[in-house]
Design brief:
The structure is a single chain. The chain has eleven helices and no strands. The chain is mainly alpha-helical. The chain folds into two domains: 14-113, Tetratricopeptide repeat domain (Serine Threonine Protein Phosphatase 5, Tetratricopeptide repeat, Alpha Horseshoe), CATH 1.25.40.10; 114-241, Serine Threonine Protein Phosphatase 5, Tetratricopeptide repeat, CATH 1.25.40.10. α1 runs antiparallel to α2. The longest helix has 19 residues, at 73-91.
């Protein structure tokens, strides 16, 4: 009998097709199956292109990203940490892809309930993004927001409120006062003041936020209605209801 033949090595075109198929699967079948396909693609790219090739590292990042969206945050965090380390070695510590994987690592730790460690990692990413991308880069501001928000989730409400006020001011200056990220930062500031016991000030900020959200998003938008509710609730807690 003739010896068994080995399957042909996928071409670069085949690998691109696999990548497109995995992306499409996320929309049609769901992220869990897309994660499986991305893991297979990452293995093929590592074998053909090399483990440190940017496309291999990208497929590994996308594998973890799909696991994240399938709700597998603990495993996604582990994989993002590994990709971040390999990207730092292969591409450089300040490469945007390295910083992106580090951010995703921290995000998934937060989603898994590891708020203190997530806050620490977000602070490091924010500092490195400020140095590599600039203090006003949206990714830097996003990392600062996540650092502050996770501090609040870890119970550090006064410090979180202080940092979120700074992020809100910087986002208003860079992105505009009506940008959704600016409004979200103002909401986080007010929420953490509320949890720190500053009910009267929180009520004042929620009233301002409700008015701005009504103007920008509409009076019936859920965020507007939630801000109005928070305003009224904090007034009551402050003894003014």
């Amino acid at each position: 009998t003739p010896p068994p033949t080995t399957p042909p090595t996928p071409t670069q075109e085949d690998l691109i097709h696999q990548h497109q198929q995995a992306q499409q699967t996320n929309h049609t079948t769901g992220p869990r199956e897309a994660a499986r396909l991305m893991a297979e693609l990452a293995a093929d790219r590592a074998r053909i292109l090399g483990p440190d090739h940017p496309d291999t590292l990208h497929s590994r990042h996308q594998h973890a990203w799909n696991l994240e969206h399938a709700g597998e945050c603990v495993e996604a965090a582990r994989l993002f940490a590994e990709v971040a380390a390999d990207r730092a070695r292969a591409l450089g510590a300040d490469h945007p892809d390295t910083l992106r994987s580090r951010y995703s690592h921290a995000w998934n730790l937060a989603a898994a309930g590891e708020r203190v460690e997530a806050a620490r990692l977000f602070a490091e990413v924010a500092a490195d993004r400020a140095r590599a991308l600039g203090a006003d880069h949206p990714d830097t501001l996003r990392s600062r927001y996540r650092h502050a928000w996770n501090l609040g989730q870890a119970g550090e409400h006064a410090e979180a409120a202080r940092l979120l006020a700074e992020v809100a001011a910087d986002r208003a200056r860079v992105l505009g006062a009506d940008d959704p990220e600016t409004l979200r930062s103002r909401s986080g500031h007010a929420q953490n003041l509320e949890k720190a016991g500053e009910r009267a000030e929180a009520a004042r900020l929620f009233a301002e936020l409700a008015a701005d959200r009504a103007r920008v998003l509409g009076a019936d938008h859920p965020d507007t209605l939630w801000s109005r509710h928070s305003h009224a609730w904090n007034l009551g807690q402050a003894g003014e209801g």
